[in-house]
Design goal:
- The longest helix has 24 residues.
- By secondary structure, the protein is mainly alpha-helical.
- The chain starts with a helix and ends with a helix.
- It is built from 14 helices and eight strands.
- It folds into three domains: 142 residues, 3-Layer(aba) Sandwich (Rossmann fold), CATH 3.40.50; 82 residues, formyl-coa transferase, domain 3 (2-Layer Sandwich); 52 residues, no CATH class.
């Protein structure tokens, strides 16, 4: 990219390309002459997608960024964890992954539009915009009420009981998200009267009296094992799950039966495959991760043919 000759090769490739994606440091593509305006003049049908850190406008448009910075600026860290915790990083790189997904969604929409108009499109996405989308619910609520959202650890901000609990051995997650499920949940725990208590008989009432209800639930669940509660809640259809760590997940029957792991050719490394099935089949990787420059001949082959002609 620093070489004028290589930039010229890129423009030659773009002549027949459908899509170009770039996530270089802000300002670089325009500085070296491969920005959207230039490349779409080379190929008016081109769909040009830029992935930025903080977006293509505003005082931070030129700022570099990575997933934790987007989580910090986008308030994700203030919604993760318990009230007494410091700002807490969400371990999966949620903004990196989701920005890639938003980019693909935008590109697919632009292809459909091009089928009608014959003209390409410039798409802009950013880690910041993805972070704001993740917190859209709390942000919308703040704009409506003026109340800053609170953190509830492993619990929902509005539904009760809808969180993780300790049992006598291992933690469990229970999601009794409506009155019907709460009534079943209360019966399983041996307290059907809770569902008729005016403090707990509706979702808003349970949320308003959250601390009182949790004070009743927590000691009951600690009287038996996780396996016991998983079985009992499942019998009556109360949504529940064990709280797995990574080794638990790796050994789970569900992961095995969903056939999500794939083996990379060459290295034999086990990796998580695509979270998509096509006609009931999950794709297999047909080659390992490429080395730098490994496919130069394949990519630039057409240009060599043009030069020969």
């Amino acid at each position: 990219i620093k070489s004028a000759a290589d930039r010229d090769k890129l423009k030659l490739l773009v002549r027949d390309a459908d899509i170009m994606i770039q996530n270089l440091r802000p300002g670089i593509v325009d500085e070296i002459g491969i920005g959207a305006e230039v490349m779409r003049k080379v190929n008016p049908r081109l769909i040009y997608c830029s992935i930025w850190a903080f977006g293509n406008k505003g005082p931070m448009k030129d700022a570099p960024g990575f997933d934790p910075l987007a989580q910090a600026f986008g308030a994700v860290m203030t919604l993760t964890g318990r009230p007494e915790d410091p700002p807490t990083f969400c371990a999966p790189a949620i903004n990196d992954v989701s920005t890639g997904m938003w980019s693909v969604i935008g590109i697919l929409a632009a292809i459909q539009q091009r089928n009608t108009t014959g003209v390409g499109c410039t798409i802009d996405t950013s880690l910041f915009e993805s972070a704001v989308q993740w917190v859209s619910g709390p942000l919308n609520a703040y704009h409506h009420t003026g109340n800053a959202p609170q953190r509830f650890g492993g619990a929902s901000a509005t539904l009760v009981p809808y969180q993780t609990f300790d049992t006598s051995d291992h933690p469990i997650c229970i999601a009794a998200g409506n009155n019907r499920l709460f009534e079943k949940c209360a019966k399983v725990m041996g307290h059907p009267e809770w569902a008729q208590d005016p403090r707990f008989n509706t979702g808003p009432n349970r949320n308003a009296h959250r601390s009182e209800l949790l004070a009743l639930i927590i000691p009951v669940l600690k009287t038996n094992t996780r396996a016991h509660w998983l079985a009992e809640f499942s019998k009556v259809g109360v949504p529940n799950s064990p709280v797995n760590d990574i080794p638990d997940l790796s050994k789970s029957d569900q992961l095995r039966d969903m056939d999500m792991l794939r083996t990379l050719p060459g290295s034999g490394a086990k990796i998580v495959g695509l979270p998509i099935q096509f006609n009931g089949e999950r794709p297999h990787p047909y080659r390992g991760s490429p080395k730098v420059g490994e496919h130069n001949d394949e990519v630039f082959g057409a240009l060599k043919a043009d030069a020969a002609e």
